[in-house]
Amino acid sequence: MGRIAGVAAAETRERLLRAAADVFADRGYDGTRVADIAAAAGVSNGALYAHFASKADLLAGALRTHGRRLLADVFAADPDRSVTDLLLVIGRWLPRRRDARGYLIVEALVAARRDEDLARPMRDYVGERADWLAGLMRVAQSDGEIDPALSPGALAHLCLLLAMGSGLVTPDLHAVDDGEWAAVLSRVVAALAPAPATAQTGTKPMKVQISSDRCQGHGRCYDLASDLFGDDEEGFGQVLGDGTVPPDREREARLAAANCPEQAISLVEE
Amino acid sequence: MTTDERFRRDVSEQAEDEELLGTRSEIVTGPVADWATDFSHLEPEWAADPYPIHDDLRQRCPIAHTDRFGGGWLPVRYEDVAAIAYDTERFSSRSIIMGNFRPPRDIAPIGGSPPISSDPPFHHDARKLLLPAFTKTAATRQEPSTRAFCHSLIDALAGQDVVDAAGDYAQHIPIRVIADILGFPQEDGPRFREFVESTLEGINLEPQERIARMSRLFEYLLDQIHDHLDNPRDDLTSYLINAELYGHKLSADHVAGTMALLLIAGIDTTWSAIGASLWHLARMPADRGRLVAEPGLLPTATEEFLRAYAPVTMARLVKDDMHWHGVDMKADDWILLSFPAANRDAAQFQRADEVVIDREVNRHAAFGLGIHRCLGSHLARMELRVALDVWLQRIPEFSLADPEAVTWSTGQIRGPRSLPLRIGEAGAAAA
């Protein structure tokens, strides 16, 4: 009995959310009455209130289950796809006309401006979407697709703005050429990648070397960069370890090379 | 008692007589007519301020000549100085003090005071014997006692308004350090000063007088060697007595020559660097104030003092007749190898004639270039840095008491020999 009742309750809830998504999308938040949703779902008003406390709860619930979530859907379908590729695919779809449920988010956001009962669940909803997107950005950063110096939260925010803005600026209002839009997106996504080689000299590994033919043991290198150079038992300079210079020791490495009277030190940038 | 045959006094005296071999040239003194054709590093004008002379020659020559000292050359560009320092094939170190005496050619490649007077290949092996004793690590071991000694020197200035920073402070520091390293009695310091002056400044004395003075130095060294033979101890003198090269102990000449080198080269040079730095700071309140406020800048400033007031000029002898960098050099012509001139060459250094105490890129040649890099450079840097650090801590305010009373040494090591500074009683008393 309990099990059947549970199944029945879940089914009722699902029917209500599907009906809510359709009615809200069709009539808007203000134009929808709770009774319309109950009728569309074929349940009584009492049964509806057993599952949802308010119209606002119904909309937030409908968004979570039936709102357009292309990114999550595509990601779920192909989790091995690179994140930047995913962003490009979704981005190219954004300006296109979508089905009615695709505009549910627009109805919700507009209504939330004037209805505090709805604003609270919408903040939660948008927060969830932002967190999910930020998590995706972190994956992309750890995979080396996106520059780790960029804030995952800010990147998520950019995606939210594009996605939600695309619901407001429909193709009827303003159209964009598919190819031109894709080109712009490619450029934007490329700019998020880890800095290209020319701008990256500071983070490329640098190595120091000493020419033992030239070194006369002046000791300027181990005076100025004691983390990178030492001396042998006769005072000649020695490179410590394999000579790799940590990024925060590049200044010392350059000073050592510039101050060696015998010009025995060279910096090799690989 | 002494059983080491190498150091029998009659043998050593016989060896010293060999200095009478070699060639002597006519002693020429007096005002220089033209620095490009008649230079002399022993004239008072050079001692007082050689830099305008270098600058003028750099524009005009840039390798000056003199007939004094039997003939010699003075390059003043960094490029030429470096080229000669690196070229041990054409330029010999068999004498490194330009004067009126050239040691016989067959003294090479060892020379009278190895390894500074040595040429390859002997040079490398003689130098290798000494290097471990003069590393930075070894110099650092001397730092605490040097610092304490500097404080004691300043303590002794208490109650005086005007002090001689050259004679009462700078001079004593390297004397103390080298006496400790060689294991000589500290109270012999005044004698060391006499030896230094005889060797480096007595260039134009009559040969017999010069030989007599040098003999006093070597007699003293022989006394110290005998004392160490009788009472061996853990110092550089005992080390040299026992050191071996090519399977044999060093000759008496080698041991005494190296001891003479360490004694002479370690004292005058560092004394000069400390004195010249204090002379600069006495005249430049902004630099002085900055170093008092920013002691962390001292190592950088020390390098700049070494560049701008490099105390040491070396010498070489041309091996064979040749045309070199535009001039015709003859075998046995001197080269006066002026690291101070190289260090002020505007082609090598920006703002070459200014003292920039926070100069970060400073590839100066104060300690020489190539295989003869100053053996004691780590020791000298430590002494100079500690001497200035302690002085600035204890006496942050000072000025020249009488600019006219400042005197400078003549010859190849240049630094103040009299430097009266007004320190005020408060400065010296504050411990």
- In the CATH hierarchy, the third-tier topology of chain B is known as Cytochrome p450
Instruction: Kindly provide the radius of gyration of chain B, computed on alpha-carbon positions and rounded to a whole number of angstroms.
Output: 21 Å
| Poorly predicted ranges of chain A | none
Question: Biggest sheet of chain A, in brief?
Answer: 3 strands, antiparallel
The outline of chain B comes out as globular
Examine the coordinates and then state which fold CATH places here, giving the name of the CATH topology of the largest domain in chain A. Answer: Tetracycline Repressor, domain 2
Residues in helices of chain A, as a percent range: 55-70%
Structural classification of chain B: alpha+beta
Note the run of SSEs of chain A as H and E: HHHHHHHHHHEHEEEHE
Output the CATH class name of chain B. Answer: Mainly Alpha
Account of the protein in words:
The complex is a heterodimer of chains A (270) and B (431). Helix content of chain A is 58%, strand content 7%. With 270 residues, chain A is mainly alpha-helical. Chain A folds into 3 domains: 65 residues, Arc Repressor Mutant, subunit A; 123 residues, Tetracycline Repressor, domain 2; 69 residues, Alpha-Beta Plaits (2-Layer Sandwich). A 3-stranded antiparallel beta sheet of chain A has the order 4-1-5, with helices on one face. In chain A, strand 2 and strand 3 form a beta hairpin. The N and C termini of chain A lie far apart (72 Å). The model of chain A has no long low-confidence stretch (mean pLDDT 86). By secondary structure, chain B is α+β, with helices and mostly antiparallel strands. Chain B has a single domain, classed as Cytochrome p450, CATH 1.10.630. Helices cover 47% and strands 11% of the residues of chain B. Chain B is built from 18 helices and 16 strands. Chain B has a 5-stranded mixed beta sheet. In chain B, helix 9 packs antiparallel against helix 13. The longest helix of chain B is centred in the middle third of the chain and has 32 residues.
